[in-house]
Amino acid sequence: MPPHRQGVSESEDATKDGTIFRKAEAAYNSLLHIVGSPGRYQIILIFLLGLGTLSVTVNDYVSIFYATPPTGIYCKIPEHHTTKGVMPDCIAQFIIELQNSSKTDVDFLYAEIDPEYCYITPPGANLTNSDLEFRSCRGWNCPYDVIQNFTHEREWTVVAQWGLSCEKYWLFTLSLVLYFTGAFVGTLLFEMVTRRLGFKSYMWVWFLISVVLCLGFGFEKAFWLFVLMRFLLGVIGHGLRYSCTRLMFDLLPSEQRLGVVTALAFSSGTGLVVLGMLAYFIMDWRFILYGTLIFSAIGVSYQWTVPESLQWLLSTSQTLQAQQVFYKILAKNRQFVTAGVDATISSTSATLSQAHQSDQTWRIMLRSPDTSRPFTALLSLCFICNMVSYGSLLLLPHLGGSIYLNVTVSGLLEICGVVCGLLLLRRMSLCRIIFVSVFMGGLLCFTAGLIPGGLPKMGTVEITRTALILLGRVCIATAAAYLLEMFLRVMPLSCRNSAFGLYGAVATFGAAVGSMFNQLARFEYQVPFLVFGILCVTCAFLTFALPVDDFLEKPLVLDPEDFTIDRDVNNSADYPEQDEEDLVFEPLPEMTRSPYILS
Q: The domain 368-553 is classified under which CATH number: 1.20.1250.20, 1.10.620.20, 1.10.260.40, 3.40.50.10490?
């Protein structure tokens, strides 16, 4: 074939494939409009599936409450510490105070490596040196068996459990990184599994495994076993989150998917609020993890109610099962069965099946500069936003104020941020909202990084720094939520299925990188937030590579008259593909005005 004819042929094939996917989306949207969009049953299902993602949020951030030692921890001074009888000032002060105190069962104690512990005194001791609280002491491993002699706090953490203080603190940071590495693996693994087995298949098994893992934390005695179980919990948890997210998107037409994005953001914010209140009343890290069993148990109970993805059933030519799911949703929504609906289901199944067989890999986005630029910019924004969002929140143990209040307020701010974003969508394009959110979040984090750290946690300066970080974090989290909507715009229909798992994997990889800053923040109070701020301000300009206010491929719908097609619905093989004359393509009324259903 001549080269010019070959180029024409490839262009015609691409146009034909694009038409197939547009037909498939139009047919599926029209089918969902019959059952109600959204109907009462779909709203209930989105709420139940949101509980599944809420439990993952709790597991993601529960490490905040077992990241630091309990208050009032002191360690014995090692014999090799003294050099010719000379000791640091702050340790000498502690020795004097302890010798004058009523406690005589322990001779020499010293504070933890963080300056915040240098002004904590055991019961009966009073520090007389006002400058002592601003000094830092060299730390060693702490024999935590002396905690019971000096504190009556209910707090008990992983750091205290295995003595992960001072030079061993990097092991705790490693456990955070491995958990989010498991989340990365779980997203990719479930993306491959769900292609063959569906999004609901064996969901109850994964929920039960998560329950067993949470219960297992009460019995393991070795730190390596704890790390392994956290890794597995990351795999299962984020795999379930991926499945729940895909099920939620398949319940609504494409023009209403912003409702799913909002539901996911509400679920994340609510998870933080629940975690903050739960940890306030339960200060033992094991029992905090037991609290997450409530959400896993809810998942086991409601998964029998959630049907398989209607779109997946139609795409895999399981027409009979798709009809059962369709009629179930129709009955729950109290909608009437229209004439010829079986024919519509069968023809939609044939169209979706043909599109499913023509699915392409996300790598085709890298072949052309017109598609590679927005695709690369989107993934870069996803990585940076999730890195900063997770990283800044995981650093809360090193910031000022009450950690319980900070986590709760962060969740409430995240919910408020999503609501403000919905209101702004009436006046601003989505691209501009993402730019403003990322840029402002970066400025706030950078400003917080300019403020010196290591001051008293309840001081005005430290609380102000924490407030700036929380405000910056909510801006970044709002941008990360709406980036999912932008992803569905940027990705063509032909490779959206393959790219969905990649997007989730990039997000979890960013969280893993963000968790590494936990080690740095223990010694450098300003550097992590300066890095976060610079990265966010810089990557905010990547939004100019994204589409401004239009879909790359507008969703289409079928004409209602085409629902009553006189064909044999018992044999869908007779019509593997509808004729193009039977379909009428025209933009939705909402699409001509705005891609959002907000009025």
A: 1.20.1250.20
